[in-house]
Amino acid sequence: MRIHNFEEYQKVYQYSIEHPEDFWNEIAQHFHWRKKWDKVLEWNFTEPRVKWFINGKLNITENCLDIPAQKHPDKIAFYFEPNDPNDLSYSITYKELLEKVCQLSNALKEIGVQKGDRVAIYMPMIPEAVIAMLACARIGAIHSVVFGGFSAQSLADRINDAECKVLITADGGKRGNKIVHLKQTADEALQQTHSIEHVLVLKHIGIEINIQQPRDIWWDDIVSKQSTYCEPEIMDSEDMLFILYTSGSTGKPKGVVHTTGGYMVYTAYTFLNVFQYDPEDIYWCTADVGWITGHSYIVYGPLINGATSVIFEGIPTYPDAGRFWAIVDKYKVTHFYTAPTAIRSLEAFGTDIIKQYSLESLKVLGSVGEPINEEAWEWYHKNIGKGKCPIVDTWWQTETGGILISPLAHITPLKPSYATLPLPGIQPIIVDEKGNELKGNNVEGNLCIKFPWPSIIRTTYGNHERCRQTYFSTYPNLYFTGDGCKRDADGYYRITGRVDDVINVSGHRIGTAEVEDAINQHPDIVESAMVGYPHPIKGQGIYAYVVPVRPIDDVKKLHKEINGLITKIIGPIAKADVIQVVSGLPKTRSGKIMRRILRKIAEGETSNLGDTTTLLDPSIVEEIKQGKFKSQM
Ligand code: WTA
Q1: Residue 475 and residue 448: Cα distance in Å, rounded?
Q2: For residue 495, which atom of ligand 1 is closest to its CA?
Q3: Helix or strand holding residue 447 (H, E)
Q4: Model confidence over 276-303: pLDDT tens digits?
Q5: Tens-place pLDDT, residues 54-68
Q6: pTM of the model
Q7: According to CATH, where is 3.40.50.980 located in the chain?
Q8: What is the CATH number of domain 94-233?
């Protein structure tokens, strides 16, 4: 499965696009299946309908747990590093992990969870979050992890959309010197849901919480008495493994669906090859399991490869800005995978703090979630990687399930801020607005993929039409990524950012419509328009233009209220950095907001606004340009 040098990559790549089915057929042989597939692939991008490894039977957790636990029961699967460096850190071996997952699986069965049921997971970044996901997969239940920073409303929406039967949560979590009141927020969410029969509550930080019997059950009470073995449910390749909600251009977040067989093959294959993981390596991905990076490259990909990983509950700046580097030294981390926003925020603290650590163990650095600017790339490469560690700039999406474009560590020649080349099996294509393919090199346009790969999105939960419309209708027979992209003279890919109404704040995807809906709930606001603007640390910041009911005299106060509202409805990650009060929005005669103009003004560009003659009221642009009544936080 493993590629060893660049020549081999080129050969494998060529073969993979000329004979995709033979290629994946061979890769899939490396895993443990209860029954082999009859056919590798059936697909069309019109319905869309994609099936991989048809009629294959398996349980992904046998590949994550039983197989590694047989080979090396005492190998460490996870090191846990708590938020507070003085709290207890510990490790879990593969054998222990298997047993813990089985116990929870049995507990879930006892409370009535069956194959196909949906289970929501709303947890801190601790090993039990991973155990919860795997326990669902063990018994064929579909997990829907909701990031612990999301609000009660967001949690309720996700629970309702998937009609989850059980919620797994904790009393609370710690992030720096803050406490996250998970159970309290969950209680609020549950007032708006009807499908949840039981809530399993882990006592993690020992805060006082409300327990409503018989609905709520303490994790320890039910889990500790269970048998440490649970027979895995045998799943079809195309049975759903999980739902993960993500933001798009319009409406509420949608539930991206991934299935079992293809997702397993692709995440495991890409983990091994992108990171070039060796059995003795210590891998650390700083993401949260609430995001796809956590699913694919903390849980499934590494475990299937029998890797040893670090799980960290806290934040990069607590107790100080050296925490990441202290953890690297403590566990002798060889592979460090993080987001550009974290790099930029640590860059701001200077290099003196880094000099207190050796960082000698590092072999490979990774970047994910947003474009990494050249300056951050160089800083990361020089100060963290000491010039000897390649940076794998991994481009992918919740919908792609795994990394699609990335260097292979120590194999692909690098170019700062380029995701470089497609992985085997991936056939990118750049198109213009009309969908014409831009062939050859030195081109820039919209990034699409023209052939399926095993972990491609299968549907959006409960609404297949939305999946078709969002990803497969813009350009016929292509999967549209929503990203802009350049291919340079060497055929290298550089992702330039979203071309739709999604913005990327600190590596988190945020839909303009969601934020605007939240802002519009403020009693003093008639309407609003949100755009992204370049932000030195977050990558993009949120700039919201708001139209008030009556003149506003205290914009700062309004800004605070709006952010309070956004926090309540979505979560703190979507708070506005800038609020500008305006008397109207630039709209076309058909009533469409011209975001292009708003984006330019937010970027500080006041000349060259392009054609404004189609506007209903061009004078509004003049007013907005003045930039009065603005508040920045
Ligand atoms: C962006 C995260 C540039 C991109 C795995 C994509 C990136 C969106 C990169 C998906 C990268 C992710 N370079 N941009 N290396 N990685 N993106 O679903 O805009 O949270 O469409 O998945 O993040 O975000 P998501």
Answers
A1: 9
A2: 3
A3: strand 443-449
A4: 999 999 999 999 999 999 999 999 999 9
A5: 999 999 999 999 999
A6: 0.97
A7: 94-233
A8: 3.40.50.980
